[in-house]
Amino acid sequence: MKNVPMRSCVITKERCEKKNLLRIVRTPEGNIEVDETGKKNGRGAYLKKDIEVINKARQSKILEKILMTEIPDSVYDLMLEKIN
């Protein structure tokens, strides 16, 4: 049986398969990106692919705390696009 990578959503604290999560990464250059490969270099955080979860992350600014930088609204908009 193949090992399925599990990660925790920073909002719900739920452990999910990586494919059910979005990875947001702060690259070494300081850019914030939605990492579709799951392999980009940098500090990452996972969010469940759920509109409510992404909106909650935007309101609570939890990604800003975890990634230690400001997150532009365009990144949240991109996340919402990716799950629709």
Secondary structural class: alpha+beta
Largest sheet features:
3 strands, antiparallel
- Percent range of helical residues: 25-40%
Oligomer state of the chains in this structure: single chain
Count of individual beta strands: 5
- The CATH architecture category equals 2-Layer Sandwich
User: Which strand-content bin applies to the residues?
Assistant: 25-35%
User: What global shape is seen?
Assistant: globular
Can you offer a commentary on this structure?
The chain has 84 residues and is α+β, with helices and mostly antiparallel strands. It has a single domain, classed as YlxR-like (Hypothetical Cytosolic Protein, Chain: A, 2-Layer Sandwich), CATH 3.30.1230.10. Helix content is 32%, strand content 26%. The protein is built from 3 helices and 5 strands. The protein has helices spanning 51-60, 62-67, 73-83, and strands at residues 6-8, 15-17, 21-26, 32-35, 43-48. The strands form 2 sheets. The chain has a 3-stranded antiparallel sheet with strand order 4-3-5. Strands 1-2 form a two-stranded antiparallel ribbon. Strand 3 (21-26) and strand 4 form a beta hairpin. The longest helix is centred in the last third of the chain and has 11 residues, at 73-83. It is globular, with a radius of gyration of 12 Å. The termini are far apart.
Structure, briefly:
The chain has helices at residues 51-60, 62-67, 73-83, and strands at residues 6-8, 15-17, 21-26, 32-35, 43-48.
Keywords, separated by commas or semicolons:
single chain; 84 residues; alpha+beta; Hypothetical Cytosolic Protein, Chain: A; three-stranded antiparallel β-sheet; two-stranded antiparallel sheet; 5 strands
